[in-house]
């Protein structure tokens, strides 16, 4: 008896490889980086380095102090200087300083500064032959010196010293202006009388003038502190002479017109009678 044949060898199992799927992964979405708004909160520490452009901070500039407002009309002040129980000097006047200065365009122009009596302190001294009056205001001062001349029996203004620190319109900065004229003979009047003028200008230098408006001044021999008889300035004397002349001429013309009208009326009346 034959032994059974051996079993056939197992057939190799064909394994067809399955294709591998190579599907690429989905693309990543780009991350949107929205810039955050800049906060206006102030930090005490060092500021972060932002890429946002900032406007340059303007540089602070120091401005000059405002100029005092000048009144449109020069106010008249009343100033006195005492000697013992009475007065040795009295002045009623409005004052204006006129100064030539350089403006921003480097031109030479004239400016005016009015002394304000409400903001002015006054003082003075008296002796037998000299009297002084000093006006002190925030922007400066004016010093008047009056002399007595016994030979001429008169008193007059012999010296004016002025100092002003002020910024005129179109000037680059406030400037101190100084003037001193010790060779004057102004506001002269006989002793016991007062000097009176509507408008009088006194030159202190080529670039500095003092103008007195509606002034009445008397130094020495004031009876009871009152002004003596007024001695008018030459300019006002001319006006005082011209005014009566003008009034006389006008009155003469009116009288002439009346006489002519009267004569014409009488002539017409006679002509009417003759026609009848």
From TrEMBL:
Listed Pro residues bias regions: 1-12
GO BP annotations listed: establishment of protein localization to organelle
Predominant location: membrane
Entry-linked InterPro entries: Lamp2-like_luminal, Lamp2-like_TM, Lysosome-assoc_membr_glycop
Cell location: Endosome membrane; Lysosome membrane
Membrane topology designation: Single-pass type I membrane protein
Disordered as annotated region, ranges: 1-72
Membrane-traversing stretches: 241-264
Compositional bias per record (Low complexity), positions renumbered to this chain: 54-64
Residue span, Lysosome-associated membrane glycoprotein 2-like transmembrane domain: 244-273
Domain Lysosome-associated membrane glycoprotein 2-like luminal: 75-222
Keywords: Disulfide bond, Endosome, Glycoprotein, Lysosome, Membrane, Signal, Transmembrane, Transmembrane helix
Domain of life: Eukaryota
Disulfide bonds: 88-126
Any one GO CC term of the record: lysosomal membrane
Family to which the UniProt record says this protein belongs: Belongs to the LAMP family.
Record-given protein name: Lysosome-associated membrane glycoprotein 1
Organism: Naja naja (Indian cobra)
């Amino acid at each position: 008896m034959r032994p059974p044949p051996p079993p056939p060898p197992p057939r190799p199992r064909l394994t067809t490889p399955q294709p591998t799927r190579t599907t690429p992964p989905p693309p990543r979405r780009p991350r949107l980086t929205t810039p955050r708004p800049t906060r206006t909160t102030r930090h005490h520490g060092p500021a972060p380095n932002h890429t946002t452009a900032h406007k340059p901070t303007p540089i602070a500039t120091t401005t000059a102090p405002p100029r005092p407002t000048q009144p449109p009309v020069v106010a008249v002040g009343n100033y006195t200087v005492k000697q013992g129980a009475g007065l040795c000097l009295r002045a009623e006047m409005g004052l204006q300083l006129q100064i030539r200065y350089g403006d921003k365009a480097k031109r030479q122009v004239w400016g005016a500064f009015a002394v304000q009596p409400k903001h002015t302190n006054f003082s003075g001294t008296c002796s037998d032959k000299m009297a002084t009056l000093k006006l002190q205001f925030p922007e400066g001062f004016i010093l008047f010196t009056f002399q007595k001349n016994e030979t001429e029996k008169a008193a007059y203004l012999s010296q004016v010293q002025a100092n002003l620190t002020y910024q005129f319109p179109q000037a680059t900065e406030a400037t101190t202006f100084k003037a001193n004229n010790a060779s004057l003979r102004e506001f002269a009047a006989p002793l016991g009388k007062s000097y009176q003028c509507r408008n009088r200008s006194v030159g202190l230098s080529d670039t500095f003038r003092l103008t007195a408006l509606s002034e009445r001044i008397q130094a020495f021999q004031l009876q009871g502190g009152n002004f003596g008889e007024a001695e008018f300035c030459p300019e006002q004397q001319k006006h005082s002479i011209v005014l009566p002349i003008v009034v006389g001429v006008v009155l003469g013309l009116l009288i002439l017109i009346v006489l002519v009208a009267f004569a014409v009326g009488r002539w017409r009346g006679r002509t009417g009678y003759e026609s009848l």
